[in-house]
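We emphasize that the prediction below concerns an isolated chain of 119 residues; any contacts that depend on oligomerization or on bound cofactors are therefore not represented. The input was used exactly as deposited, without trimming of termini.
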Amino acid sequence: MGEVMMTVLVVANAVLAVVSVAFAVVAAVRPAALSHSAEPTSGEKFYGWMYAVRAVPLGCAAAVVPLIWSGPVCAVVLLAAAVAQAGDVGIGVFRGERGMIAGSSVVGAVHVLTAVALW
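Result of the prediction step, given as a token string:
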């Protein structure tokens, strides 16, 4: 893979990881924005915080690690982030959330492509 394409892939990965972190922060701060509830229940608030606790550090790692390292360490971090995105796709399918399915699919695919390219 050419150096320019590699740079584009790593930057795209970082941008998408940051977007993922932003959605996690929104889920924690305003759970109704993602659940579409008029008034979020305590369970929705709990889920928002649970999601953020996982997604913020994993998303930050997925954004930063490829900028610092390549090889197995980078691949493991990105594949872990991709698996989390696959879980989000599953939740999106269960809830019928097309945006969640599409967004998480794209982010997960970019994590996997970046992992393979940097291995």
